[in-house]
Amino acid sequence: MAKILIVDDEQDIADLVSYNLEKEGFDTIKAYDGADVLKIVKTQKPDLIILDLMLPHMNGLDICRAIRANPEIAHVPVIMLTAKGDEVDKIIGLEIGADDYITKPFSVKELIARVRTVLRRSQEREKPSVKDIFEYDGLTINYGSCAAKVSGRPVTLSPTELKLLFFLSRNPGRVYSRDQILDHVWGDDTFVTDRAVDVHVRRLRSQIEQDVENPRYILTVRGFGYKFAEIQ
What we know:
Number of domains: 2
CATH architecture of the largest domain: 3-Layer(aba) Sandwich
Number of strands: 11
CATH superfamily of the largest domain: Response regulator
Strand order of the largest sheet: 2-1-3-4-5
Structural class: alpha/beta
Radius of gyration: 18 Å
CATH class of the largest domain: Alpha Beta
Order of helices and strands: EHEHEHEHEHEEEEHHHEE
Number of helices: 8
Distance between the termini: 45 Å
Helix content: 25-40%
Largest sheet: 5 strands, parallel
């Protein structure tokens, strides 16, 4: 049974989300102050975090950055919950490692659907692979342990970034459109747009490429989509 941490300074909203998730069979933990979140994540080890953007003492963006920067908890999926409808906030959230976002006011059914989708993606990335180790030009990927290194240095990736890297690296040289990537990486999650592919590719490149303007692993094929470099 998945354990979900709900972080929102509006107690009524946290209680509403908690009540409906528990009706669906999830365990929930609630937090109302940004200053408490990192400690709770380390001690309670939730399987997913629903994180409000506007919080006292430490906002959601800073919390998400801190989670992704800590190898001990960097793997935990994050759904950003925000009252702001500005696309800039959503893009920033995705760029710093959030796996999805939903804007207030929201449908409880939609939120639960997104929770299930993000959890499924997180669980799928943990499945063992027939080929456990991939190496190319200084990049090492361990599919079994869900880890990646560049020139021997571990890199911290969100669950979605890992799944994107796994998918493209397992099919080197093959070009995929954004829609194809959405189908393979996000599955039947109809809430994610093709813009999310660009955001996660950019975030992934920032972690593994020495020069993001001239990438050597994840390549853009203009007019088509993306591919992993061809292996000679």
